[in-house]
Amino acid sequence: MHKAPQYTIFKVTERDALLPFIMKSLQGISRNKAKAILQGNGVRVNKKIVSQHDFELTQGMVVEISKKKDRQTLNSRFVKLVYEDSHIIVIDKAPGILSMANNHSAFCVKTILDEYLHRTHQKCTVHVVHRLDRDTSGLMVYAKNMKAEQILEDNWHEIVTDRRYIAVLSGKIEQKKGMVESWLKENKQMVTYSSPDEGDGKYALTRYRTIKTDDKHSLVELKLETGRKNQIRVHMADINHPVCGDVKYGNGDNPIDRLCLHAYRLDFYHPMTSELMKFETPIPKTFNAIFSSKEQDS
């Protein structure tokens, strides 16, 4: 049975970058070995996995380092393993793959994870507790046993403390921040829309913060206060700034040939230990590449 990595704990006493801090803390370790630990998701800062070499540390932060040599890796261009213990798996999903199988396709994240568990001699399969759309990338958590699944499913809104997305929207948003709220319904063609009548449908609230813009696009952070189907995509279309690359709710603006929506942050209480787990992934490089340095207006 695969075991969760054992961490050595270090407290930060002065400002430093993460890579040199690791080399100082683990005396005698080479630069390449320190990089390998980072790339293998073997470092946590304040309980959050960090792989960025130049991540800035400040006094009071807690760094946990795992030197476990037999840490298993998941080799898939569709799924990156972010965290694993005996109860849950957190992954970074690529665009273009389903969270779980449907009637039209058996190829999905669950299949890849089940194959990984079999290959690493773990006598379990993953259980789906939430979903991302096929074309949305980003962080997801799967349960590895029925007890963890039940706790996550039954208490999802209490357990999950923060879910945030990064998106590239069509057009230049003038507001620095705002919110969209509506009642969402689904028609017979499985298209979600905001009902004009208050109380008609499921209440949905999305908050947004503009990170940067140019004349054609806006990079925004979105925070879900509710988790309805296609919520972000519908709400951004409602304010006439649809998500770029959205063939269902968009306006044809598709600068990088993909849906520009990425679930970059996921915070939740561990279903078995109640520990607050915090995970964050970088903004996709392809999103930033849309904005030329001369036209940025932050």
Automatic annotation (TrEMBL):
Its EC number is 5.4.99.-. Keywords: Isomerase, RNA-binding. The keyword Transmembrane helix does not apply. It holds the Pfam family PseudoU_synth_2. Residues 87-237 form the Pseudouridine synthase RsuA/RluA-like domain. GO terms for molecular function: catalytic activity, acting on RNA; pseudouridine synthase activity; RNA binding. GO terms for biological process: enzyme-directed rRNA pseudouridine synthesis. NCBIfam families: rluA_subfam (TIGR00005). Belongs to the pseudouridine synthase RluA family. PANTHER family: MITOCHONDRIAL RNA PSEUDOURIDINE SYNTHASE (PTHR21600), RIBOSOMAL LARGE SUBUNIT PSEUDOURIDINE SYNTHASE D (PTHR21600:SF44). This is Pseudouridine synthase. It comes from Pseudoprevotella muciniphila.
